[in-house]
Amino acid sequence: MGCRLVVADDSRAAEFWHVLSLVYSGRPASEEDRNRTLGSEGLESWSLISETDSGQAAAVCRALRFTVMRGGLDIPTGGIAAVGTDPAHRRTGAASELMTQGLRFMKDQGLQLASLYPYRDRFYRRFGYESCGWRWQLKAPVERAPFTRSDLPVRTVGADQLAEAAGVYEAFARRWSGNHLRSAWHWRRLQGDPRLLVFVGEPAEGYVLVENKGFWQGIKVHDMAWSTPAGRDGVWSVLQGLCSNQNEIEWNEPPSLPSFAGRWEAGIEAKMANALMCRALDVPGLLRSLPAPDGSGRFSLRVRDELLPENEGPWLVEWEGGRLEVRPADRAGLELDIRSFSTAYMGSPSLSDLRQEGRLSVQDEGSYRNALRLLGAIPVTCMDFF
Ligand SMILES: CC(C)(COP(=O)(O)OP(=O)(O)OC[C@H]1O[C@@H](n2cnc3c(N)ncnc32)[C@H](O)[C@@H]1OP(=O)(O)O)[C@@H](O)C(=O)NCCC(=O)NCCS
Known about the structure:
This protein is an alpha+beta fold. The chain has 3 domains: 108 residues, Gcn5-related N-acetyltransferase (GNAT) (Aminopeptidase, 3-Layer(aba) Sandwich), CATH 3.40.630; 119 residues, 3-Layer(aba) Sandwich (Aminopeptidase), CATH 3.40.630; 92 residues, Nonspecific Lipid-transfer Protein, Chain A (2-Layer Sandwich), CATH 3.30.1050. Helices cover 25% and strands 33% of the residues. The protein has 11 helices and 18 strands. A hairpin with a 5-residue loop joins strand 2 and strand 3. It is globular, with a radius of gyration of 23 Å. The model has no long low-confidence stretch (mean pLDDT 96). The site of coenzyme A has 15 residues, from strand 4 and helix 3.
């Protein structure tokens, strides 16, 4: 069966919701579902359908326009979500066509990167995605949580004032690679009820959004961030107060576990959750947007990419005096496949990790040393689920 990619408008909404309902609710879509429009509450998005020769919707997904941060860099990114194939069309290649043609579609929209939370990493690897980050889901008995004391002023508000936290969140999130520059869409999704928002510092240096499950039932942290170490202590001081009638606390952390900073205790449960996969869509464009390192340097690389062969190069990357250029080269000092390039670009597994694991071939040591200066290691995480 050959499938065709269609960007659905509202005339195809009923079919789109029908497939999603079959996949995610295990039943045909209700009349109410079939009448829903395809908009994504203020976020630019596309509803994609892989349709059969006879025009039936076989597989669907959404592509959401996000801005992903890599340190100080903002990367236009397509977030793939809600992937599903009508059970009547499974194992016919419908989702594979959707994933393959979706790459070209996203690239044509000016997106340089694609990311997703996989149900099975192996399926998405076929299309060039690679696992690169996660967040820790932590649970601790209150006597083992990383509480501390702080004198920062504390302000308690309702979760509807979350957008005020944007500056603190951005300063926090830019310490890693893979986090979203949050829009109103992201903040709205965090506003579930009943949740309490607490700011520390004036102006705010930290905040925490918590759900109190009831006396002795536990505290669940839905979001927290800080822009300074004092803000981190302020947040954990507030949490200690909130836990005075609780037995446990649950929260999420980026891979480097910033809440602990020398305060880890045995007996804390940590689960690796929300493994993130990324895929470079525009190799020369991504390289060009990196800030030039100090001084001058150059390296050349080839990126094997069967689905978007224009990414292959080889590319010569050269910088001097703050200016960085990327242009076609005759030969390559480094060679890797698109999956490895994607993780090296994001920062983890990094270029040096890939070399150690035999996934980067090095013809020229000078190229390798210079590439390390541009593509440094950074832990990858995404604190938002989509
Ligand atoms: C995951 C899912 C989207 C895959 O959809 P699909 O359309 O069946 O995918 P494809 O047909 O392209 O590929 C699926 C498998 O069929 C195989 N396949 C593809 N064409 C085939 C054909 N003509 N004959 C036999 N097998 C075929 C593929 O090789 C693949 O094999 P695998 O089981 O080793 O991975 C679908 O199973 C689904 O909707 N699952 C439930 C929802 C879900 O998990 N969504 C993902 C959330 S991230």
